[in-house]
Design brief:
The chain is an alpha/beta fold and 152 residues long. It has helices spanning 3-6, 27-38, 57-64, 94-104, 126-148, and strands spanning 16-21, 44-49, 88-91, 110-113.
């Protein structure tokens, strides 16, 4: 499946969604925050990383700009998840996609890959770095609206 068709392969809203990236510090927690905000309250949403990471203050800053927050949430790994049943797993980095495919190989779970740039590679002023984070934030919001919310 292509990136475009993967997210649209089911025609109903998933009951449980997991977003996965490298360290659950930037991309997947942003996706989780938007999904929690945009999707109906009955949809279970979580995020995790392949490796342990630390909370990123730039994520808090760019989410605050759009009225969202991670609250007291801390990064977690796939091994630390309390629930391991999901209808949809959205991976945001190559290593996360590989890990999710390995994790779900014996179950009927839809796994989709949304390649997402890593904003930590941005250089320059604080505003230039924040701009890279905003681009990821805005792209995640758009994809959640187009590929998940549109199923409802």
């Amino acid at each position: 499946m292509t990136e475009e068709s993967e997210g649209a392969s089911k025609d109903r809203l998933p009951g449980a969604i997991l977003f996965v990236c490298g360290m659950n510090a930037i991309r997947s927690p942003m996706a989780e925050a938007f999904a929690r905000h945009l999707l109906p309250k009955g949809v279970y949403v979580a995020s995790a990383g392949v490796r342990a990471g630390d909370r990123d203050p730039f994520v808090d800053a760019v989410l605050d700009e759009v009225g969202l927050t991670l609250g007291s949430r801390r990064p977690q790994t796939l091994d630390q998840l309390e629930d391991d049943y999901f209808d949809l797993v959205v991976t945001l980095a190559p290593e996360a996609h590989h890990a999710a495919l390995e994790l779900t190989r014996s179950s009927a779970v839809e796994v989709v890959y949304w390649p997402m740039p890593d904003p930590t590679v941005a250089t320059g002023s604080r505003d230039q770095v924040l701009s890279a984070y905003r681009e990821v934030r805005d792209r995640l919001e758009r994809l959640i609206r187009e590929r998940i919310l549109s199923r409802a």
